[in-house]
Amino acid sequence: MGLVSNMSIIIDKNFKFFLLLLLLFFSFCSKTFALDPKEILVVANLNAAKSKGLAKYYMEKRNIPKNNIVLLFLTDKETCSRDEYENKAIPPIRKFLDNNDHIRAIVTIFGVPLRISSPKKTQAEQNKLHTLKMKKKDLEDQLSTGDTIDLKIRQEKEDELSNLKNTISNYLKGIDKLASFDSELMLVKKDKYDLNRWQPNPYYLGFRNQKTNIKRTEVLMTSRLDGADETIVKRIINDSIEAEKDGLKGTAYFDARWKNPGEKKVSGYGFYDKSIHRASQLLSEKKRMSVILNDDNSLFQKGESSDTAIYCGWYSLAKYIDAFTWQKGSVGYHIASSECTTLKNKDSSIWCKKMLDKGIAATIGPVGEPYVQAFPIPEIFFNYLTEGYLTLAETYLISLPYISWKMVLVGDPLYRVNLHQ
User: Fold this and answer.
1) Torsion angle, CA of 259/262/266/269, rounded to 10 degrees?
2) pLDDT at 27 over 50
3) CA angle, 413 as apex, 407 and 404 as ends, to 5°?
4) Of all residues in the chain, what percent carry a pLDDT higher than 70?
5) CA dist., res. 374 & res. 32, Å (int)
6) pTM above 0.85, yes or no
7) Closest Cα to residue 93, out of 186, 223, 179?
8) Which helix (H) or strand (E) is 141 found in, with range?
9) pLDDT per position as a tens digit, 28-50
10) CA dist 314 to 1, 251, 306, 397, Å?
11) Do 132 and 171 meet the contact criterion of CB atoms below 8 Å apart?
């Protein structure tokens, strides 16, 4: 399924105001953020080979306290049920958090499920669906009888039946509770909230002046260290640490689809395309990294991005284009519908998996159809990431509009991009 945008995006669309917002944020980010290793909880799966060992490896590398670990016993598959998540994951994690209120971020390790399947419909949902179906059946029965019906009345009933079918279809499409394990884990401290679709992220900069039904104290940062095998996970950890020390080297590649609309107000796909332009512009202005922007309908092709340090682009659905040589510590994501549905399937060509296979250190993607406005806003994410003040997990948090939804951040949450060479 392609990207669909049928919901308005609540964001700051005025560029000058956005830059002011960035400056204002720096006035409080030092107190609110500055993620420390002791504030990290590591979650591994005892039922998955290598998971505990990789957790220990990461904790030693990052000097995370030895007690900051929760070992779950879950399926070793990439999808777990909602019941399994609620009964086997939430209780031990919440117990640890109750006794360690300084924890601000959770990192899930290779072997922890990637997504949570949808639970059964609630009684209220079943009741509403039953009512709609009964109305549909009643209309169908009326139209199928041999009784003579006035042509005008028949047409009205046929129109009503058609509208009712659309209502049922839209209602079923609107019930979507499949979520990424990590995105749901961001609200592990909160007892009750609507599982259907998403919740607004109170840390997202675009919602800073909006009231949300989620409090900041109820939200945790999440990230995962994952990939097709344990060697990829260790490489992510080691590359992130080495890039912090030696500096991230290479070029930033931004792949927009259209020309920059300038001051024109845009939404949906147009907004994200414009945001890619803005990300490119902001990074170019820093003059500490070479930036290449592609703004036509073609995508970067093989050999065109030989030294990639930063990447953001769209749209090649579930078909990775091998145009990049990923530098040590590289970060990037591709905006498309289902680019993190698996990290293990060897036959998959989705972007997250292939980028990790090929050498990227951190990436972002959804486990199912997220709608375009669920992606981190490129100009926020890459601007803060390359400033180097915030970690990868913190940058993701402030650029991500929705939680309890489909997105996944793969990478070391403590990784700080270092361009100060």
Assistant:
1) 30
2) no
3) 30
4) 91
5) 24
6) yes
7) 186
8) helix 123-144
9) 444 456 799 999 999 999 999 99
10) 15, 18, 18, 21
11) yes
